């Protein structure tokens, strides 16, 4: 399939809609300043074909897309022991909700809500993983040097009362081992990683190739079984309380972030990334989801 004309046609259809719906994340001051009228899309197939359109090379804050990569590191290093602290069920609640945590004694529903990602950050710290290790991992996967946006990290730290509450609440149940300040520092930095659609489409490539390195095919970023399971979690939990709707209308494993990016995977075929900063009420990119729906419709690609 020649993907370039398909991405060009999606870009042409989305562009007139920019600025006409949704809202950029404004609860993180540094994100509130990002212009809403942007759209990018990029993909890379398992055999190395690439296509991109629109603002595919403009960097943005990857936010919760980072949860995909910290989860991968934790699964690879801990195996099934990770699931003693974190569940694998959709939450059906907003990504920053506190309500289920009390009823479930501080065990987050899944690794893609904030509580779950904070618990993963705690596991990584216990394993000796540091911020620099995460950046090295992202750089190796995308084939280019990747950095934190320190202004976004500082902005999140200055306003992250809910995330601190989640971390402290889990700590009160004995479910966080490290110092809360160190755990949220890693979490705020992972959210503040800056990447563009092309880099993210590269980095997520191990998920469509049974865990092999996205650019050179080396084993193994994750085992084939782990890669399958990460895709399963993306489908069921990757877009928060909209995951059912996304499975219904797009039919691909996706992971979104409040910076407006969404990574999607077509197993055994390709990985792609869309970006548009204005969000819908669930915190997913409004036009990013629309673009993925157009992509699934035009290519006939879906896991179903
Ligand atoms: N940094 C954001 C937060 O903690 C990430 C949320 C997201 O992208 N859904 O609220």
Write the layout of secondary structure elements.
Elements: H1 3-14, H2 29-32, E1 40-45, E2 50-54, E3 60-61, H3 66-78, H4 99-103, H5 114-126, H6 131-142, E4 147-148, H7 150-159, H8 161-172, H9 180-191, E5 193-195, H10 197-203, H11 224-237, H12 243-249, E6 254-256, E7 261-266, E8 270-275, H13 286-299
Antiparallel strand pairs: 1-2, 1-8, 3-5, 4-5, 6-7, 7-8
The chain binds glutamine.
Residues 63-64, 95-96, 114, 156, 163, 191, 257-258, 283 line the site of glutamine.
Described by its quaternary structure, the protein is single chain
- Give me the CATH fold name: Beta-lactamase
Intertermini distance = 19 Å
Q: Uncertain segments of ≥5 residues (pLDDT<50)?
A: none
Backbone CA Rg: 18 Å
Please give the number of β-strands. Answer: 8
